[in-house]
């Protein structure tokens, strides 16, 4: 059980190598120009035999404005400030920031019944700048950098809430990895500002206005094309650039100069799926199901049918209030369809899968990127269904990213819940990760943190992401992508497996 620290805990401050090796040398600590006072009870800073500066943890962290705790069972010191939690296990050469493991080149230790920890890495995890003045033996700490805000325009609730939360996980993980950015010679702390569009185009307007009023320099999102299309005008009127993460409908970027996109489009994804159905299964007839009024599912069905042959398709829609999909599955069977295509939200997908299993649907179920989710895997577990989907990224594509994201998810209960209760990596999390880093690259190129500067720089960004090379075209600011991953659901192992990478031809 955690308890507040009432005894002196002393921390080791990792500094630049110094010319001082005298353990009795006096060391001073200054935070934002104010000296930190030390006493015999708190412990005194000193330079050890390894030329590392040791300072009292509790004294310095509380002067820094953080709260300090001690987990006696885990032998871990904990500091919290501004929503950031840093944990330092004793006897290790790493710390955890928000559950993400960060390596250090010094080891925490216990000496003379006192605990010493690497404070430099801790303070930098909070966004502080740490400098060493060897002429005065003084550690100078600046408590924080100026802030640049990135707006997160995503659904945390509604029918796209599950996918939206997974997309945000990738953004949050990237922010933990890279919390600062250098813009025009100044280092900025990156602050994420959240607005829940609730998967609703009408609420999306107020969510977008909240982000523009918050002073964001750039916007990321959204999962779901309808809300992105609805909010586009708000971002455009405010002069703030936006990067679409997984909103694949062409209308998101069409006819404007402020909305960019790192994902492929439905005009590409639809024909890919149509060709796959025809080439893989010899499909002659297709049943297509979309949600009424949903730009994503309706639009993707239209692109699929145009490539497949509309005369060979039966197209139906359902309303928001629909929860029973038995009739639609029955209609597909009576139509004699060879494939069932339904690029709907993960929540609806689970209901469709349940009915397909109950009616023992023998034909393949096809969908777009929204079905690449553990929600779908869990719904299909132990069924005889054949489920295929297109996606942006497949787990195993970048082992460093995969292992790092999994470690964070497994060490952060909230992150694990937002990922659907396990550590399977969704493609939209990888896309969120890349979108954040593209935004940082635009800020670096901009030379200034204002939205207009970022807007002007964004079109010239070239970024090698974990989901592939990201390069915007000159027409609508869409990413130049010509390949999609086709995956299949292993219903016994409850995991997605890669079938192939495929283009339209």
The major pleated sheet works out as:
7 strands, mixed
Structural class: alpha/beta
The CATH class of the largest domain is identified as: Alpha Beta
User: What CATH architecture of the largest domain do you see?
Assistant: 3-Layer(aba) Sandwich
| CATH H-tier superfamily of the largest domain | Response regulator
Percent helix: 25-40%
Q: Given the C-alpha coordinates, what overall shape results?
A: elongated
Report the uncertain regions: 1-24
User: Per DSSP, what share of the residues sits in E-state strands of 2 or more residues?
Assistant: 25-35%
What is the straight-line distance between the termini? Answer: 59 Å
Query: How many structural domains are formed by the residues?
Result: 3
Side by side, the strands of the main sheet go: 23-22-24-25-26-29-30
Cα radius of gyration in angstroms:
26 Å
CATH structural fold name of the largest domain: Rossmann fold
Query: Kindly state the mean pLDDT as a whole number?
Result: 89
- Total DSSP helices: 14
Strands, count? 30
